[in-house]
Amino acid sequence: MLESCRFTLRALLCCLAVAIPIATSAAEDGIATWCRFDLPPLFIASGPDEGKGTVDLTASFIMRYLPQYEHRTQASNIRRFEAQMRSGDQAVCAGMQKNTDRQAFMLFSEPLHAIGPPQIVAPRRHLAALSTFRGVDGSIQLPNLLTDHTLRLGLSSGRSYGRDIDNMLAQHKGQPNIVERSAAQRMSEGLLQMMALDRIHYTILFGSERDAFMDQPDVAQADLVSLPISGQPRYITVHVVAPRTPWGERFIERVNQVLRANWNNRELRNLIAPNGARDKVLQDWLRELDPNRPRRP
């Protein structure tokens, strides 16, 4: 009986010896708070489809492969999230574009998604005025358009539209014809409604954003048109981001490991490009995004 008790005690101590390092590691990794914006169809922050945006679902896939963190989600906006990044909070996001300002305080994963370039979106009644700024290829010359103070541009504060457009907008910041809307809830929807009310004449959106709201009566009545912006790439990559801290470095490296190991996982592939097998452009995107492909230093 005594020998049996000793054996049981030794077995218990062995279990504890194994369990303690695991618990310490999990405690060290801590909480990862995934920020979600109100930006359908990429993020869906509320309503019956909450958490079912394209980026939302991809983030959920990654969370499953990072069990060493306690994952939480948080409805946020770009300004608030950037403030958390600057403070070094353990906040992360699965859908951010690179720009020079963000790289100073954010770490970026391998490319996660690719989206088509931003476009000028405007009610058809303003098409003639905007067309005077078209180049020979039919695309809008944005630097010239921004000098016309009779046409008001509406933007979401803190939003990135890609490096080139961000730089163009920075050169005209503070002009009375550029109206910045707080990057709060209903980011794209709010701008589309402002156009329907003629408070702004045009905005800059990615194509999928405009399409997400086309069934709403006030947006549909505006009879929107989209115009390409000159000099834009075929697509823009978005990434998982974390704060530029030691914790953030570990987190991004683990995200990259998940992406590399699961790049050909059918579930992940369908989340990133559900029509990739049929769409040549998406096939090109997938080749470009592949985290395992050789890249120039």
UniProtKB/TrEMBL annotation:
SUPFAM superfamilies attached to this UniProt entry: Periplasmic binding protein-like II (SSF53850)
Superkingdom, taxonomy of origin: Bacteria
Keywords carried by this UniProt record: Signal
InterPro entries with a match to the protein in the record: CHP02285 (IPR011972)
Signal peptide: 1-26
NCBIfam families found in the cross-reference section: TIGR02285 family protein (TIGR02285)
Name of the protein: Solute-binding protein family 3/N-terminal domain-containing protein
Species of the source: Viridibacterium curvum
